[in-house]
Design goal:
The protein is α+β, with helices and mostly antiparallel strands. The protein is built from 12 helices and 8 strands. A 4-stranded antiparallel β-sheet has the order 1-2-3-4, with no helix packed on it. A two-stranded antiparallel sheet has the order 5-6. α11 packs across α12. It is globular. The chain binds NADPH dihydro-nicotinamide-adenine-dinucleotide phosphate and ligand LWLCTGZJ. Pfam families: ERG4_ERG24. Its EC number is 1.3.1.70. It is found in: Endomembrane system; Endoplasmic reticulum membrane; Microsome membrane.
């Protein structure tokens, strides 16, 4: 299956990515295949006696190594951008201040041959590492207490769904801000390789040392909250992605739109007519569902929800400024017709 994205590169969904230049094709299997392959290898390893649960006691040194790796990696990327750039330069990472540019990243899509580092790192090592750490924590809990708790199952299940979905819908990342706008520097490399696996697994880490009693009625309510969040998140992202790829696709052709001077249109009905960032709303509702199994006695499991709210509010503000610059009056019209940013009638 092939689809032409508005970004000028071609995607054979799930198999390879061909960037703008002719003959430049990445074929390294889909992200979802990478997840399944990892699951198979880990299962075989565990059956052969690999003590995966021991990972639970090595998180701090591993996080240190991941941070160091991200630092060295981004230093090499910075030098590569100076000596042998292979892609366009990022708008934000070329100020001339070496520290600032090292952090934000000079190149937009650094590559070696056809291998795109940002596209690879954004999805695979961090997300797959995150679910592996969660699994190790679940196995450790089983070793310590005889079986994993319901709360641990929920956290593992919800986050596996999120990661599996991201890798299944891998192509959708091509229209996100990180890929289209941000450079690949220390901030993103650290975020992808260290921050995501070690802090996004905080709820499972908390549950290992603070077991929580969770009954089925409360667990059902939490599952419902996660399902609502996932429905909004996936619905909004798919709607925008489908529309950006092909505005006449029958699934989005009936939606109301605002024309812009650039020739592109803005959706003003469907999910994108409810608030200006419905995908953030869904993501935040899921973040709440991931913390609730940990009870309400500690703040630590809510760290992700708090950090994520700050990240998305800042990101939303950044995106609004970029869209205003890109679309001018049409964006003002959109803001007038859809006045709320993330949460209807609140924000
Ligand atoms: N778990 C995590 O840690 C994180 C998750 N995320 C998630 O990643 C996903 C992507 O987020 P992000 O890249 O920030 O932003 P979006 O996917 O929301 O992309 C914003 C872009 O969408 C386009 N757009 C905005 N409004 C409209 C409209 N009405 N109609 C059509 N197009 C519109 C504009 O680009 P253009 O017009 O140029 O197409 C805009 O720049 C989100 O679901 C977010 O929740 C993000 C950060 C961290
Ligand atoms: C503190 C710090 C250094 C933050 C850097 C931010 C990064 C951790 C995030 C920026 C955008 C991200 C996205 C995802 C993970 C977190 C980072 C890298 C994402 C891959 C998670 C899964 C989603 O389904 C997604 C594919 C939409 C998402 C894309 C953005």
């Amino acid at each position: 299956m092939r689809s032409q994205t508005s970004l000028g590169f071609e995607v054979c969904v799930g198999v390879c990515v061909r960037w703008g230049r002719p003959g430049l094709t990445v074929c390294c299997g889909s992200g979802f295949q990478a997840l399944v392959l990892t699951a198979l290898l880990v299962t075989l390893g565990v059956l052969a006696g690999l003590p995966l649960e021991e990972l639970a006691e090595m998180l701090l040194p591993l996080a240190f190594v991941a941070t160091l790796t991200a630092f060295i990696f981004s230093l090499l990327l910075y030098l590569k951008a100076l000596l042998a750039p292979t892609s366009a330069l990022a708008p934000g990472g070329n100020s001339g201040n070496p520290i600032y540019d090292f952090i934000l990243g000079r190149e937009l899509n650094p590559r070696i041959g056809s291998f795109d580092f940002k596209y690879f790192c954004e999805l695979r090592p961090g997300l797959i590492g995150w679910v592996l750490i969660n699994l190790a924590l679940l196995m450790k809990e089983a070793e310590l207490r005889g079986s994993p708790s319901l709360a641990m199952w929920l956290v593992n299940g919800f986050q596996l769904l999120y990661v599996g979905d991201a890798l299944w819908q891998e192509e959708a990342i091509l229209t996100t801000m990180d890929i289209t706008h941000d450079g690949f520097g220390f901030m993103l490399a650290f975020g992808d390789l260290a921050w995501v696996p070690f802090t996004y697994s905080l709820q499972a880490q908390f549950l290992l040392y603070h077991p929580q009693p969770l009954g089925w009625p409360m667990a059902s309510v939490i599952c419902l909250i996660n399902a609502v969040g996932f429905y909004i998140f996936r619905g909004a992202n798919t709607q925008k992605n489908t529309f950006r790829k092909n505005p006449s696709d029958p699934r989005v052709a009936d939606l109301e739109t605002i024309p812009t001077a650039t020739g592109r249109q803005l959706l003003v009905s469907g999910w994108w007519g409810m608030v200006r960032h419905p995908n953030y709303l869904g993501d935040l509702i899921m973040a709440l569902a991931w913390s609730l199994p940990c009870g309400t006695s500690h703040l630590l499991p809510y760290f992700y929800l708090l950090y994520f709210t700050a990240l998305l509010v800042h990101r939303e503000d950044r995106d609004e400024r970029q869209c205003l610059q890109k679309y001018g009056l049409a964006w003002r019209d959109y803001c007038r017709r859809v006045p709320y940013r993330i949460v209807p009638y609140i924000y």
